[in-house]
Specification:
Blueprint: H1 15-23, H2 27-43, E1 48-53, H3 59-64, E2 68-75, H4 78-88, E3 93-97, E4 109-114, H5 125-134, E5 136-147, H6 152-161, E6 168-170, E7 173-175, E8 181-183, H7 187-193, E9 198-201, E10 206-212, H8 217-220
Parallel strand pairs: 1-2, 1-4, 2-3, 4-5
Antiparallel strand pairs: 5-10, 6-7, 7-8, 9-10
Length: 233
C-alpha cells in the first residue's frame, strides 16, 4: 500500500483485507490482481530473493513463498505488518516497518517488487524507484504494477462499495473525502518517470513495469536513466 499520501495509513489492519475482498467482486480488477500474480510467478526465478515495497498484508510474498529463497516485505503501516506477520512470517519471509519512499536496505536482493498500485498511491514516485534500485544486486530486476486510466470506472465502483461517495475524479486520479489520492498512468507518463523501463499491459486496466539495475550502475550515475530493461525477462 502507500506511504505519506495515503490517508488510510493509520487505519486498522482489516481495511486492506476489506479492500481486496471488494476488489474481487469487480471482474476487471479481480482479473488485474490475478494477472499480476501470474506474471510474478512466471518471471521470478526459483530461489530468488525478493523485497516487496508497500507489501500491505504480505499476500504477494505469501503466494511466492514456495519458489523464493527469502522475502522481505516493507510497509509504513504497522497494522498491515502485524497482519502480514500473522499470515505469512516464516523462516524465509520477514517484514519491516519503514518508509518505502526513502528506504535503505541492509542487504541486496535479486528482485524488487511494488504491486497492486503502490506506485500510484504514493507522493514520491522517484523516491520509490530509487529505493528499489538501492535494494537490488547488480543485474537485479525491479517489477511494478500500476493502473491505467481505463481502470477509473471500475475503481470508482470499488470505492463506492467501500462507502466512499464524495469523490474527486479527473482523467488519471481519484481522491476520497478523507484525502486519499490514488493515481493511474498512461504508458507515456510512466516512460517520463522511468525512461528505460519495459512496459507491458496488465489486462486492459493496468501495466507491468520492468527495469534492471545494470552492472556498475552506481559507478556511472545516480540517475535512473542508466537502468536498462535489456534481458529483463
Amino acid at each position: 500500500m502507500s506511504q505519506a499520501n495515503n490517508a488510510w495509513k493509520n487505519d486498522n489492519k482489516n481495511l486492506i483485507n476489506t479492500l481486496l475482498e471488494t476488489a474481487k467482486k469487480i471482474p476487471p480488477i479481480h482479473g488485474y490482481l490475478l494477472e499480476e500474480i501470474k506474471y510474478l510467478k512466471q518471471n521470478i526465478p526459483l530461489e530468488a530473493s525478493v523485497i516487496d515495497f508497500g507489501c500491505g498484508n504480505g499476500r504477494h510474498l505469501g503466494l511466492l513463498e514456495p519458489q523464493i529463497s527469502q522475502g522481505l516485505g516493507v510497509d509504513l503501516n504497522r497494522d498491515y505488518l502485524e497482519k502480514a506477520s500473522a499470515l505469512y512470517a516464516s523462516k524465509k519471509i520477514f517484514f519491516e516497518e519503514a518508509n518505502i519512499e526513502n528506504y535503505h536496505s541492509k542487504k541486496l536482493f535479486d528482485i524488487a517488487i511494488a504491486m497492486y498500485n503502490t506506485f500510484g498511491n504514493i507522493e514520491n514516485k522517484q523516491g520509490l524507484v530509487d529505493s528499489m534500485m538501492r535494494s537490488l544486486k547488480e543485474g537485479g530486476i525491479a517489477i511494478i504494477s500500476t493502473f491505467s486510466p481505463n481502470s477509473i470506472p471500475y475503481r470508482l465502483e470499488m470505492y463506492k462499495m467501500l462507502g466512499y461517495h464524495d469523490l474527486e475524479i479527473d482523467r488519471n486520479s481519484i481522491k476520497t473525502e478523507d484525502g486519499f489520492l490514488t493515481q493511474c498512468f498512461t504508458k507515456s507518463e510512466i516512460q517520463e518517470i522511468i525512461p528505460m523501463a519495459k512496459i507491458e499491459p496488465c489486462t486492459n486496466i493496468g501495466w507491468i513495469i520492468i527495469f534492471k539495475k545494470e552492472k556498475n550502475a552506481n559507478k556511472k550515475s545516480k540517475n535512473i536513466r542508466i537502468y536498462s530493461n535489456s534481458q529483463a525477462r
